[in-house]
From TrEMBL:
The keyword Mitochondrion is assigned to this record: no
Domain Ferrous iron transporter FeoA-like: 1-77
Entry keywords, A to Z: Iron
KW Nucleotide-binding (keyword) present: no
Taxonomy, superkingdom: Bacteria
UniProt xrefs under Pfam families: FeoA
Protein name listed in UniProt: FeoA family protein
Coiled-coil boundaries: none
PANTHER family for the chain: FE(2+) TRANSPORT PROTEIN A
Length: 80
């Protein structure tokens, strides 16, 4: 499942990131923030109009991701 499809408040683990689908500067910034395979993520909020950006918890931080960036991140939903 892609991160942009993950239900809100549902914990997941990043299983893959399609770095080549992102701009180089965006990929670098997300790596610096700790986004990589194996990290725990959770979609917290979605903007009401256009549904972009998505606020996500990445580890212990909250990060705003564009829908296109979230679509490049594959996650495995964890049991609640």
């Amino acid at each position: 499942m892609r991160l942009d499809q993950l239900p809100l408040k549902c914990p997941a683990r990043v299983s893959a990131v399609a770095w080549d689908e992102m701009a180089e500067t965006t990929a670098k910034r997300l790596r610096e923030l700790g986004l990589d395979e194996g990290v725990l993520v959770e979609a917290l909020h979605v903007a009401p109009f256009g549904r972009d950006p998505i606020a996500c918890r990445v580890g212990r931080m909250t990060v705003a991701l564009r829908r296109a960036q979230a679509h490049a991140i594959t996650v495995e939903q964890l049991a609640a």
